């Protein structure tokens, strides 16, 4: 009897979905489209067995292309609620493969608040679907740490940090400098000796990179003892290469300046000064 009642409820929900939602998700009024996306996300979280399927997910994927900011924003937030849990994220492999390119491209959305939420979404994907984002995908996100919007840059900084931070940080910064035309520390220090990560042409100033990482990785950037030990290492096998030393000195200097003055780089909004170093 319980099973019959559950099936009856699901049939009623499907009838409402086909009779109302399927017509209204593309309504001429943007607010109605946005509400449809918001509610669909709630249904998927609340009734996973019935609604977390590719047949329903596709509506959110399609509306990621909507011309209106509010609709795109609600789509991204609905997806955040799904990718933030491994058990729901595992049901989204087909959706991810189909719409990942669109999601990655939205880090450059014309609306900054949408772009911020997209980077947060991709960070959740990084944490809960390890194989979803390739290195090529990530290379589209790393450069965002150099944008003028601090909220967006900080979101990208968290993504870079979650991607293993020091393993990529030096190589990322070195490659940024090169393409812009510039030419015994323990486990944390060893992780600084990174492989090269190709990146597009970026701003050459370490201050922007440090500022982007400050909120999520401030303690590690202020670990000057470990950084100094790396710079003083002279072992031909364990020591840093000249390019790595130069990059690390610039990052060290930028982190000291950030810690003492608490001022963001030129062109970015005010940053909170960190007290009690």
Give a quick set of tags describing it.
277 residues, mainly alpha, Leucine-rich Repeat Variant, elongated, disordered C terminus
Query: How far is the first residue's CA from the last residue's CA?
Result: 64 Å
| Total of DSSP H or I helical runs spanning 4+ residues | 15
Q: Under the CATH scheme, which class of the domain at 16-105?
A: Mainly Alpha
Radius of gyration: 22 Å
Provide the structure class: mainly alpha
CATH architecture of the domain at 16-105: Alpha Horseshoe
* Helix-strand sequence: HHHHHHHHHHHHHHH
* Percentage beta strand: under 5%
Fraction of residues in H or I helices = 55-70%
Weakly predicted, low-confidence segments: 182-203, 271-277
Q: Quick one: CATH superfamily of the domain at 16-105?
A: Leucine-rich Repeat Variant
Q: How is the main sheet built? A: none
Kindly identify the CATH topology of the domain at 16-105: Leucine-rich Repeat Variant
* Average pLDDT figure: 83
Outline: elongated
Number of strands: 0
Family: Belongs to the SCC3 family.
Keywords: Nucleus
GO biological process, one term: establishment of meiotic sister chromatid cohesion
Organism: Podilymbus podiceps
Describe this structure in words.
This protein is mainly α. Among the domains are: 16-105, Leucine-rich Repeat Variant (Alpha Horseshoe), CATH 1.25.10; 205-263. It is 66% helix and 0% strand. It is elongated and about 75 Å long.
């Amino acid at each position: 009897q319980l099973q019959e009642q559950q099936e009856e409820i699901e049939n009623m929900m499907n009838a409402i979905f086909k009779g109302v939602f399927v017509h209204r998700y593309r309504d001429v009024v943007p607010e109605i489209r946005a509400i449809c996306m918001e509610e669909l996300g709630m249904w998927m979280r609340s009734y996973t067995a019935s609604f977390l399927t590719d047949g329903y997910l596709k509506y959110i994927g399609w509306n990621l292309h909507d011309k209106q900011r509010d609709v795109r924003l609600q789509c991204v937030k609905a997806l955040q609620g799904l990718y933030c849990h491994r058990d729901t994220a595992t049901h989204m492999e087909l959706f991810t493969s189909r719409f990942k390119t669109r999601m990655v491209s939205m880090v450059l959305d014309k609306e900054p608040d949408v772009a911020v939420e997209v980077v947060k979404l991709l960070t959740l994907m990084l944490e809960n679907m390890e194989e979803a984002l390739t290195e090529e995908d990530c290379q589209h996100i790393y450069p965002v740490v150099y944008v003028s919007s601090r909220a967006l840059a900080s979101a990208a900084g968290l993504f870079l940090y979650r991607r293993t931070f020091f393993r990529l940080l030096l190589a990322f910064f070195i490659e940024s400098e090169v393409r812009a035309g510039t030419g015994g520390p323990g486990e944390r220090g060893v992780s600084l000796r990174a492989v090269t990560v190709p990146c597009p042409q970026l701003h050459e100033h370490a201050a922007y990179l440090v500022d982007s990482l400050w909120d999520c990785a401030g303690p590690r950037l202020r670990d000057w003892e470990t950084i100094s030990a790396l710079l003083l290492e002279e072992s031909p096998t364990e020591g840093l290469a000249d390019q790595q030393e130069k990059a690390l000195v610039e990052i060290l200097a930028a982190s000291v300046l950030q810690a003492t003055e608490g001022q963001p780089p030129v062109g970015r909004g005010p940053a909170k000064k960190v007290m009690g170093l």
